[in-house]
Design goal:
- The protein is an alpha/beta fold.
- The chain is about 35% helix and about 20% strand.
- It is built from 16 helices and 16 strands.
- The strands form four sheets. It has a nine-stranded mixed beta sheet with strand order 9-10-8-7-6-5-4-1-11, with helices on both faces.
- It is globular.
Length: about 400
């Protein structure tokens, strides 16, 4: 692998908290329904030990930290005190910009009391991501959610209130294409979400994944024609409300403040942007995945941690379960699988700097995609232009990605 142009990407940290009150029938994440009290202190200690192992393994003592994302499971089941202890220990191990680092915590409206968001913010959280999924009672029950419509709306209001103590932004997660959902139902959900004025909306279609309850007993989902109509009309609603689509399912609120030239950028999820731009990230916690670049060797490695809480919390067992190297044959697809989700462009220089591969390793496929009108380039000389997915390419993204599979 050529490493002449490989550069060190930004480093993020993903922290996985695996417990939830109940396992949702559509969820294929590594989550475990609560059977007893969460071992907060033991798990925080295990997370910090896991992090220290990775810092040593990949020689990360001098790399600054770009962002943190605490996901699950349901991280909001943890106390603010446990989150504060975890973050203080994590941040003490990295150089970071206190004023700009984004620290996100996922929250379930059914696990949040009135003052809990404020506690999380005081613990260091700068961004909240609230898993609403729907504002219709029947759909929430079908999805196995433990919260009701009122709690979902209250959670959004609590996030808004938490801005008074330092919260910078919040996201609402919302699904469409739900069982027996009409176009009107889906758009009403979206209108309700927009009315709550989140800084960011993650609006994505329900998919049936293997190893889920929905896969075993599939519900009746809307027909493709209905799904396309929901998306087309929903995109227009979001645009009319001032939300800019910057990724397949991510929309950021564009600030009207003319004096803040960075306002649009700051509403986007910086942690996820680092993923999609093929940045580096450590993954700690049960089943967490990581990706680290070593420019001295040209190696890009992936990690997977022990999946089950019992094994992860075993002091005699190493947290690392798998360590693999991404081969040069795999890198073009790995890069494009992330980058092509974005609505922004990239150059072949960006590709070279993130993968260490020459432009020739991917240029023929890009030109093939261009001929199929799935991608476009801003210049006649493709090595100098900016490449971008077309609207047709976003609609048929899976077909586009298949071109990069070897």
């Amino acid at each position: 692998m050529s490493t002449n142009l490989l550069t060190t990407p930004p480093l993020s940290l993903y922290i996985h908290i695996p417990w939830c009150v109940e396992k949702c029938p559509y969820c294929d994440f590594n989550s475990h329904a609560l059977k007893s009290k969460i071992p907060e202190l033991d798990y925080v200690q295990a997370l910090v030990g896991d992090l220290d192992d990775d810092i040593t393994r990949f020689n990360l003592e001098n790399r600054p930290l770009h962002s943190i994302f605490i996901g699950g499971g349901t991280p909001s089941l943890f106390s603010a005190q446990a989150i504060e202890s975890l973050l203080s220990q994590v941040l003490s191990r990295f150089e970071h910009n206190t004023a700009t680092i984004e620290i996100t915590l996922e929250a379930n409206p059914g696990t949040v009391e009135a003052d809990k968001f404020i506690g999380f913010v005081k613990a260091g959280i700068t961004r909240l991501s609230i898993g609403v999924q729907s504002f219709e009672s029947e759909k929430l029950i079908k999805l196995g959610r433990i919260h009701n419509v009122s709690q979902a709306q209250q959670a959004a209001q609590m996030a808004t209130d938490a801005k008074s103590v330092g919260l910078k932004s919040f996201n609402l997660d919302l699904m469409h294409g739900l069982p027996n959902q009409s176009i009107e139902n889906a758009l009403d959900d979206l209108k309700t979400a927009i009315s709550l004025k989140p800084d960011h909306l993650s609006w994505y279609q329900l998919t049936i994944e293997p190893n889920t309850a929905f896969h075993s007993k599939p519900p009746k989902l809307p027909q493709d024609e209905t799904l396309w109509s929901i998306q087309d009309q929903g995109f227009q609603l979001l645009s009319d409300a001032g939300y800019k689509q910057y990724e397949i399912s991510a929309f950021s609120l564009v600030s009207p403040e003319k004096d803040n030239i960075n306002s649009k950028q700051n509403k986007q999820c910086q942690h996820n942007l680092n993923y999609w731009r093929f940045g580096d990230y450590l993954g700690i916690g049960c089943g967490a995945h990581g990706k680290i670049t070593d420019i001295s060797t040209g190696l890009i490695q992936r990690t997977v941690k022990v999946k089950h809480p019992k094994g992860y919390l075993d002091p005699d067992r190493e947290p690392l379960d798998h360590l693999t190297t991404v081969t040069s044959d795999e890198l073009p697809f790995e890069y494009m699988m992330n980058q092509l989700r974005l609505f922004s462009s990239f150059t072949l220089a960006d590709y070279q700097q993130r993968t260490g591969l020459s432009a020739s390793s991917v240029l023929p496929t890009l030109q093939q995609a261009q001929n199929k009108k799935l991608m476009s380039c801003t210049k006649e000389l493709p090595t100098e232009g900016k490449w971008q997915v077309t609207s047709l390419g976003h609609r048929y993204l899976n077909d586009l990605l298949e071109l990069f599979l070897k």
